[in-house]
Every structure is written in structure tokens, then in C-alpha cells.
Amino acid sequence: MHDERLANLLGAMALAIHDVMLPAVVDSSGVGVSASAALVVLGAHPGLSVSELGRRLGLSQPAAARMVDSLQEQGLVTRRKGTGRVVHVGSTRRGREATRRLLAARSAQLVDVLGSLTARQKQQLEPLLGTLLTALYRQIGDAERVCRLCHRSCCVQDALCPVGQAERSLAGG
């Protein structure tokens, strides 16, 4: 199999996974993709500033502020004044429930996709995905951005997260 065909298959798979995963995430959370990712990031790192949350999602500060406004209007996050102009964001109980639902919906879709593989194929796929994620982390350069919709507890259960490991390796740790 030549690289161009393999790359084409990978691209088609990435788009198809996107097409089945993201609608389930959005439907279960009741908010858009970026807002869903914000809830996941805040679940892992409560109290981030609006600017830092935006940076981790790849949003400008004004776009992040508008998204936080919307999440706050829906009762999913709260704001807390920090020092200076810094505003910290945290999830409400409703926000944490939405996060739990969206991660479960995401997982269900992805487990369904993997259901077409044998146990041996799944075992072979895991290290390959780790290698690809490490390469993507090196290209993107931001673990939080790569993992913005990750179910973090699943990734580190009985294993090291390949993205986190790549970040530590690059930092010399």
C-alpha cells in the first residue's frame, strides 16, 4: 500500500469519525462543539481564566468570552473575578452533568466504530494510534488542544497517555 492511498484512507476515516462523534457530543451536551470542549477542559482544569480556556481551545479571547457568556446563560459555568482583569471559569453541577453525558456519548460512538475490529486488531491499533497522536502533538504543540474532547480517565487507565507522554518528553521530563 503506498503512502498516498494510506493517507487518503486515514483522512476519510478521520472525517467519518468526526461525522459520527461530534453530533452525538453536541446532542448530548446541548451546546456546540467548542462549548462542549470547554466543558471537558474545565472538568479537567477547573478555574482556568477565560483567556487560558480560549487558548486551549484555539479561540481568540473575545470568542472565548462570548462562549463563556453563552455557557453561563445556560447555567453550565460560573465566573469568578481574579486579580486584575482575570476572570476564572468553573463548571456548575449542570455543566458537570453535561460533561459526563457528552463524554459518554462520545465514547459510545467510538466504541461502536471499534466494534468492527477483532480483539487482536484492537490490540494492534492501540500503539499505532499512540504513535500518530505523538506525531500530531509534535505538529500542534499543545496537549490540551489535542485532547480537548478526551475522556481523560479512560486514557490513563492502566497506561500512559501518549499525548501527555509526548509533552513531558519534549519538555525534558
TrEMBL record:
Domain of life where this protein originates: Bacteria
SUPFAM superfamilies in UniProt: Winged helix' DNA-binding domain (SSF46785)
One term of GO molecular function: DNA-binding transcription factor activity
Taxonomy of the source species: Bacteria, Bacillati, Actinomycetota, Actinomycetes, Micromonosporales
Protein name: MarR family transcriptional regulator
Start and end residues of each HTH marR-type domain: 3-134
InterPro entries: ArsR-like_HTH (IPR011991), HTH_MarR-typ (IPR000835), MarR/SlyA-like (IPR039422), WH-like_DNA-bd_sf (IPR036388), WH_DNA-bd_sf (IPR036390)
Gene Ontology biological process terms from the UniProt entry: response to stress
Record field: transmembrane: none
Pfam families hit by this protein: MarR_2
